[in-house]
């Protein structure tokens, strides 16, 4: 089969590789119809992880079930399915608690598995013609009959919609809240949409990329451009000086200011300022573990000083971590099916698999208008 393979920093290509196949009775093989390039893929693409060369990338996958193992009882050949980026067993201590992003079975010695990702187990990604899905009954969400026509919406269920939703869950967004979201990338835009699903009265989205701020407006949020002046002050002005009730971080360790200068952690400290006392903050932007013995490495990996004192005095709370996609997916699928939400409006490009390397290059360069790239193998 053909698949997008990682060869080294900024070096990916579509190669001929062995077909995905059933390895365990609980596996399925899915023929991929849509697989997306994610901001998280860029951590690997840019060479900032220890992902092994030869790895097939791609954790935002949907498609048609082609084959099932003898132990698969619910998912059937021909079903259209979307696959949470988390690979989970469904029966360990964490899965039982709904914490499928931290499954203890699929990535022994660590927690959490994913397709085509560094340090998340030995699983191939889905930027390919076919994908092996472990524990298929648990990990495949079957889609209704409109799956093909709403592919651009349903494909967001593999990661960024539930991840944005997770940010609002961690922040405990409730009816009538004001919410500030840092980052108008795909995850931030889906967090803004999710805040509204949960009944937020007003949502501010901060970024400095005009094309993305326009999309923030299209999903119903108030865009704030931090190149027009201090974003925290703009939020305080808009909330009578109090700050927003809740905050979501959807940028991660690669934060920069509007001039492009890297400012690790600036979004965390800005959220502490922009959220009211006792307000809660959800962090879904990725921050990498830091090795306290390697100071130089630390600076490169995004060391920053958290304003913990202000955080303490404002009595705020913070929730972090990988999204437990399965917790949210069924309900979000139903909202798409009933035409209540249209997350697919953020899609900017739909390419064939053979155009994937070009898609990575232009998405990584954050070329104007390259918000969300879908690949159709
Ligand atoms: P992205 O890089 O496309 O978007 C990030 C956006 O943040 C960009 O538009 C950028 O201009 C903006 N930004 C940068 N610095 C800023 C600042 N100081 N203030 C305001 N905006 C700023 O990435 P994405 O795909 O939207 O993902 C966002 C983060 O979420 C990444 O770290 C990604 O790895 C992470 N993520 C986490 C999970 C999870 O389960 N927790 C899942 C998917 C992605
Ligand atoms: Zn993703």
From TrEMBL:
| Classification via CDD domains | PFDH_like
What are the entry keywords? Metal-binding, NAD, Oxidoreductase, Zinc
Gene Ontology MF: a single term: zinc ion binding
Domain called Alcohol dehydrogenase-like N-terminal: residue spans: 25-135
Q: Which residues form the Alcohol dehydrogenase-like C-terminal domain?
A: 186-293
Question: What cofactor requirement does the entry state?
Answer: Zn(2+)
Which family does the UniProt entry place this protein in?
A: Belongs to the zinc-containing alcohol dehydrogenase family.
Which protein, by its recorded name, is this? Answer: Threonine dehydrogenase-like Zn-dependent dehydrogenase
| Naturally occurring in which organism (per UniProt) | Amnibacterium kyonggiense
């Amino acid at each position: 089969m053909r698949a997008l393979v990682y060869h080294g920093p900024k070096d990916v290509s579509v190669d001929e590789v062995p077909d995905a196949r059933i390895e365990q009775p609980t596996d399925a093989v899915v023929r991929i119809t849509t697989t997306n390039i994610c901001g998280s893929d860029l951590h690997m693409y840019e060479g900032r992880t220890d992902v092994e060369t030869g790895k097939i990338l791609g954790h935002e996958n949907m498609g048609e079930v082609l084959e099932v193992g003898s132990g698969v009882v619910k998912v059937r050949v021909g079903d259209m399915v979307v696959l949470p980026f988390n690979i989970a067993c469904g029966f360990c201590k964490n899965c039982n608690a709904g914490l499928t992003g931290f499954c203890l079975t699929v990535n022994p010695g660590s927690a959490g598995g994913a397709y085509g990702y560094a340090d998340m187990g030995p699983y191939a990604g889905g930027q390919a013609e076919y994908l092996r899905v472990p524990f298929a009954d648990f990990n495949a969400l079957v889609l209704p009959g409109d799956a093909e026509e709403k592919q651009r919406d349903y494909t967001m269920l593999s990661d960024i919609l539930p991840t944005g939703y997770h940010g609002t869950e961690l922040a405990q967004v409730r009816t009538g809240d004001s919410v500030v979201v840092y980052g108008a990338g795909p995850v931030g835009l889906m967090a803004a949409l999710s805040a509204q699903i949960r009944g937020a009265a007003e949502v501010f989205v901060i970024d400095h990329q005009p094309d993305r701020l326009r999309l923030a407006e299209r999903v119903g949020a108030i865009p704030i451009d931090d190149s027009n002046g201090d974003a925290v002050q703009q939020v305080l002005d808009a909330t009578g000086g109090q700050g927003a009730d809740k905050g979501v971080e959807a940028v991660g360790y690669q934060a920069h200011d509007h001039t492009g200068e890297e400012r690790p952690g600036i979004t965390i400290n800005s959220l502490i300022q922009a959220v009211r006392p006792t307000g809660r903050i959800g962090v879904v932007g990725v921050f990498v573990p830091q090795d306290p013995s390697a100071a130089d490495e630390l600076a490169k990996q995004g060391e920053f000083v958290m304003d913990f004192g202000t955080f303490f005095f404002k009595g705020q709370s913070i929730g972090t971590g990988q999204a437990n996609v399965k917790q949210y997916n069924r309900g979000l699928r139903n909202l798409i099916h009933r035409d209540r939400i249209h997350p697919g409006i953020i899609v900017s490009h739909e390419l064939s698999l053979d155009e994937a390397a070009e898609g990575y290059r232009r998405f990584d360069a954050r070329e104007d208008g390259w918000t969300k790239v879908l690949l159709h193998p």
